[in-house]
Every structure is written in structure tokens, then in C-alpha cells.
Amino acid sequence: MKKRTKVLAAILCLTLFAGMAMGSGSSGETKDVASSDGSETTADSSTNDGAESSSSKADVSIDESVIVDQDGIKIIATEYVSDSIMGDGIKLLVENNSDKDYTVGCDALIVNDYMITDLFVSEIAAGKKANETMYLSSSSLSAAGIENVGKIEMYFHAYDSEMNYLFKNVYTELHTSEFDNMDTTPNDAGIELYNENGIKIVGKTVDEDSFWGTAILLYTENTSGKNVGISVDDMSINGFMMSPFFSTTVYDGKKSIDEITVFSSDLEANGIESIEDVELKFHIYDADSYSTIADSDTITFTAE
Question: How much is the pTM?
């Protein structure tokens, strides 16, 4: 169990770094994604940018409640908390009333209908309890324009030391004291790059001085009737092939803000100092069966 704990800790650290990197570490000017004909944004006067609001953040609370009671595993949401470093979170009391040790984690975490980075995992010995906190990535909330958390959806799983699942995708939903006041306006200003098969992808900004190199910010909306995964193929910048990092899962009826990361090493190796022309294809697949839904034609855009 100790070895597995170290592996899980390493994975969490990498996930935390990726989440914190979104929108951070930039000292340079962020450019807008523009279409190849020079237009810079789509007409969308209702977009919520969140960060521009001058209103103060509301005090958020929840009522204590049992959110999972399955096969001997009980999870109780006890309190909504805010940490100056980790951000907002939900305090959880996790009980293992079975006769085996289990690791409890989250398949998906969704806040105000946006997919959010999940950092929760807890190893619970048989017959024991643990106080844990499920943090809601502050960078993910900010990127989505979420100031007041109103609705939190979670899909839990539990597995033993041999990776045999006790259960998967156990759904629960929490409403906070701000449920009636939460803003659900899509943060979708930008250039529409793809809109087929119930999947809409919007290019928002290009940050040439992000944490890892260059970050291209995307908004994705899924009304396809399926949970989908999206990746990027055949990406080039200024005519040079790149090896970007991008993979996202968006549940049906949900939205997501994600970054395509282009590493500094790739740009430097090709002598690229400024992003001018970008070409790529989106690969869209069923997140449950991994079968292909669509492969887009080549999409071209610029940064201005």
C-alpha cells in the first residue's frame, strides 16, 4: 500500500501542476485567437468573463449530507471550505465499513456545469475513517469565469489493491447556498473552430509565456448525448510540426475550459519566437467505448 500511495501522490502532484499552470506564470501579452480571414471574436455579448466582475465573492456553505452510501463505503460532505493556497473545497468524511482496504477517488468533478480538475483520492483501511478535502481547482474555476459555486456534481469510484473496482461512476450532486445565484452564462467568447455532432469548440486566447511554453485556451460545449474525449492531431505552428499536450473529457450537457500546451522546447527547436499561424485537427471519440465520433478537417487560425 505504501508503494501505491507514493505513485498516487506523484500523479496528484503532476495533476496539481497542470491545473495550477492554467492561466498562470505569464508575464507577456496574451493574444486573441483570430480566424485566418482576420476576424478576432465571435459576436457574443452575453459571455461571462468572471475575472472582470467587481462584486465580492459570496460566503458559500453547504448542509451536511451523505453523498455516497454504496457497498460499505460511506462519504459524508460536512463543510464548504476555502484555502488561500488550494482554493475552495468540500470537506468529506470517508468511512470504509467493509472488510477490505479500498482507494476512493473521483471519476469526474463538475462545478456549475463545467468540468473541473479533480485532485481527490483517499486510501481507507477496512473498518476505518478519514477526514479529507476535495479541492475545486481555483485556476479551473477562474478560467471558466466561476466566482460563486452553486452546484457540484461528482462521480465516485472505489477499488482494492489489485485494481478490482468495488463500484464506478456513483453519481452525487451538491447544492451550495449560492445555487440560486450562480451564473450559468457560457464563457464562450472567441473564434468558433468546430461545431458538429453536438460538439462546439471555441478558440479563445494564445498565451506565449505560459507555465510550460505556449498555451492555447479552448472552450468546449457538449450536447451530443454522449460523454466525449477530445485530442489534437497533426498540429503545426508557423508551418512546423509540434507535439502538443492536450486531452480532455467533457460529459454530455457539460462545458470545459482547457489548454493546448505547446512546450518551449518544441518552439525553440524550430526557431519560433512568436505564434503566427496554427493548424490542427480534432479527434473526437466516445469516452466510454473509445470509438471515433469524428475527425475534423484541418482547422487554421492565427493569433493577434
Answer: 0.85
